[in-house]
Design goal:
two-stranded antiparallel ribbon; two-stranded antiparallel sheet
Length: 66
């Protein structure tokens, strides 16, 4: 039976490796489209959270990918 430390440490190691390989994720605000709806449905603006890139840096990736 695996130890409780190994059960906690294994997912953390997998997450750290995934952040190293894929540091960017879709922007949560615009869902990766790089635009957000303006004041009405006919006007679209650049997403203010990702500045139009459609991506955000994942938690933990900022230290590694500066």
């Amino acid at each position: 039976m695996p130890s409780p430390v190994a059960l906690i440490l294994a997912p953390v190691i997998v997450y750290v490796i995934s952040v190293f390989l894929w540091p960017y994720a879709r922007c949560r605000s615009c869902r990766g489209s790089a635009t957000s709806m303006g004041s009405n449905q006919r006007r679209w603006n650049v997403c203010s959270r990702c500045d139009g890139s459609g991506q955000r840096i994942r938690f933990g990736a900022r230290k590694r990918h500066r």
